[in-house]
Every structure is written in structure tokens, then in C-alpha cells.
Amino acid sequence: MELSWQAVVARRMVRHHLSVPATGSPADVVRAMAGAHAQVLSAAEISVALRLEGATREDVQRALWEDRSLVKTFGPRGTVHLLPTDELASWVSALAALQPPKSTAPPAMRMTPEQTQQVIAAIGDALADDELTVDELSNEVIARTGSWAGDLVMPAFQTFWPRWRQAIPEAANAGVLCYGPNRGRNTTYTNPHRFAPFQPVDAERALTELVRRFLWSYGPATPQHFARWLSISPVAAAKVFTERADELEEVVLDGQPAWLVRGDTDFSAGPARGVRLLPYFDAYGVGSHPRELLFPGKAWDRALARGQAGNYPLLLVDGIVAGVWHQRRNGRKLQLTVEPLRSLKPAQLRGLDDEADRLGAVVGAQPVLTIGEVTVGAHA
After folding, report:
1. 378: which residues sit within 8 A by CB, 6+ positions away?
2. What does the alpha-carbon distance between residue 339 and residue 374 come to, in Å, rounded to a whole number?
3. Are 217 and 16 contacting, i.e. CB atoms less than 8 angstroms apart?
4. Which of 205, 215, 296, 361 is the most buried (most CB within 10 A)?
């Protein structure tokens, strides 16, 4: 089965609710995205709300902190993501089963496997009934393990963090740590079992579900694309695909082999049309490959940072990256500067006006749109 890039883009846009907004819940939208990158939480809130009919950032916040249908934790690439709470057991089992990259930390900084397990157990116990800041959690972990956990050996922002903190992502993958609501300007952590108790999922079944989620949202794709999405070794990704060969179907995209979930071969959507503004680290730009087709021509240099997607908010035209943009809040005004990389047709300019209005509604501000050069740099 040979697929055109146009057909692939159209299907991804539909599945990401970027062609027609969803009418369900924030959790449904995040499920369709296979997780929403939330290193910058405000950007994640915009990503999700833009895909949901009539939604605002407040709707996403309620799903996260009140309804608890979303959870903020560590996801693909070891980075902070929003995930559907009802899928958390499968996510953590899959991520824990993947071979982590070999540590590059100096020996004096590392923990033994036994120490890591002690720290994870201590984190789970300390957070079982509370939300703690990192300093509060540090005191609890050191008290439960030993002074070695508090050794200041982790270089961080011109200071040093205690040794135990390197186990935070592993504690999340063990299912005993996630983010709680901020306490003032301080981040808090809690244990997801407080609001969503779950049983561990078989690792092999969880990995199969992870592959299916990825290919449903971003397929057709290769093991190398899967590896980049998760930040694991290409060898490990190829092994995951090979072990699930019976569940996958090979197709041809741009002359190269790629894979879909077997039977998921409906590409009946018409061509993607319209203009969309996607914020920092939006899942569509980060997870979609081949990257040279999604970021063609000038977009490769202008909208990527050393080949890395996510550092610039993206202007999409018909599902393809066609520029960058920047926003700045000024009281009740939202100053939007959009830099197209080619001339926009009248209908596309009208679509851009509509998209600016929608973005303003999402964040609760009056948009002021300017078409011109974006002079700020990539997001750090």
C-alpha cells in the first residue's frame, strides 16, 4: 500500500482534532494526541483547548486539578506530559519496561540499583497522603533512606541538587509520583494512587498499547520515529516493532517503508485545509515524521532548533509548517506576531484572523494580530 504525504497529513490532522475540533473532554483530546507535552504547562493547556470545541485553558485546568481526568507526570522522552488518568497504569508500565539510556553521570553521582529502589519506595510513602514541594519531599526521602540520598552531587542551575532527585522520573514510571497543583510559585508532587488507584499492567501488553497509541496518532511511522518520540535507542525501538510484527502492517510513504497498526488503513479524509496556530511543544509538530516533509524548505531552518521540533510555535497551512509566531500578553490584550514563510492567500488570511480569535478566547484576552518577523529566539 503506497500512501501520499497529502493523505497522511490529512489523517493526522483529523486524528489530532486540528481539522475539526473535538466535542468530548480534555482527556479525549489528550488521548488522541498520545500525550500533551507540558514542560510549559500553559502551552499544554492551549494545545488541548484549541482542539476542543469552545474550550478554554480553564477547562483543561479543571480536568487536571479538579476532575482528575488528566494527570501531569513524566511521559515520552522523560519530559513532563499530560496523560489521561485512565491510561496511566498502561503508560507507566510501558515506560518502565523500556531500556533507559545508559547513564552519562560520573560514578560519584550515581545511585546503585538498590539505592534507587529505596528512594522510589520512600517517595511513594512520603507522597501517599500529601502534596509536597521538592524541598519537603527531599527531607522525607533523606529521613527514610539515609544521608547519602541528600549528598549534593547533581549539577543544576549553578548549584547542586541532592543525589535522590535523579530518581524522580523513575518514581513516576513506577507509578508513585506525579505533579500536584502549584503551591504559590512552588511545584508540588503527589502520589497518583491518592486520586486514581490502579493495578500494574503487564509490561508486554503495555508496550503493545504504547505502539498502537503512537501509530494511531502519528502513523505511518518507522521504529526510528518511535525511538525519537520516546528518546530511546533505535535498536530498542526496532526490537519493540519486531516483536509485534503480527500486529503491524507495512506501507510505503515517500518511497520508504513505514508501519501502521494492522487494519488501520483508512485514509479517506480529503486534503487538509486551513490555517492553525500551534503553541510551543505541540504534539503534532514534535511527533510527526518524516520531519523534512512536515518542515519543508525554509521551515527547516526557521521553525526547528538544530533539527529539534517544539522550540517555536508553529503556523500550519493545510497541515504543513509554513511559519512561526509569538504571543505576548499585555493586560487584556494578546499581542500576536505571525511570520509566514510564504505569501498567504486571502482565504488563508481570513483563516488566520479566525485562528487568532480562537486563541484569544482560549486564553481570555483580546487578540491583536500583526503579520511580520518574529524577533524573539527559540524557547529555552
Report:
1. 305, 311, 312
2. 6
3. yes
4. 215
